[in-house]
Amino acid sequence: MADVAPPDVALWPDVVMAVKVFATMGKQWRAGAGGLMGLDYTPLPFVLRMARVPRAEWPDVFEDLRVLEDAALKEIYGE
């Protein structure tokens, strides 16, 4: 499957930055007690700075990131 290109996805302009941050946070998934999984938000300020997200947009990007995380978890757990 490595030779199959992923489909193009159209994004609304107001979520492009959140998707970029979500993709960058891809190695920050953590499993806790009982196997519950979620993103480790500890490196998030660093990621936001490296992605050059204006500080005023951090709250909106964070909320969008949480929506993306929730959607990913529903896929992972088959909900």
Report on this model:
46% of the residues lie in helices and 8% in strands. The chain is mostly helical and 79 residues long. The protein has one domain (13-77). Helix 1 (16-24) crosses helix 3 (58-77). It is globular. It starts with 15 loop residues before the first helix and ends with a helix. It comes from Cupriavidus basilensis.
List the helices and strands and how they pair.
Blueprint: H1 16-24, E1 29-31, E2 37-39, H2 44-50, H3 58-77
Antiparallel strand pairs: 1-2
In short:
The chain has 79 residues and is mainly α.
Order of helices and strands: HEEHH
- 3D shape: globular
Compute the number of helices. Answer: 3
The main pleated sheet reads as:
2 strands, antiparallel
How many domains make up the 3D coordinates?
1
Fraction of residues in helix: 40-55%
Q: What gyration radius follows from the Cα positions, in whole Å?
A: 14 Å
Structural class: mainly alpha
Uncertain spans: none
Q: How many β-strands, per DSSP? A: 2
Query: How are the strands ordered across the major sheet?
Result: 1-2
Q: Compute the average pLDDT.
A: 91
Distance between the termini: 25 Å
Oligomer: single chain
Beta-strand portion reads: 5-15%
Protein name: DUF1799 domain-containing protein
Pfam family, one: DUF1799
Organism: Cupriavidus basilensis
Structural key phrases:
79 residues; two-stranded antiparallel ribbon; mainly alpha; Phage_TLS_TfmB; DUF1799 domain-containing protein; 8% strand
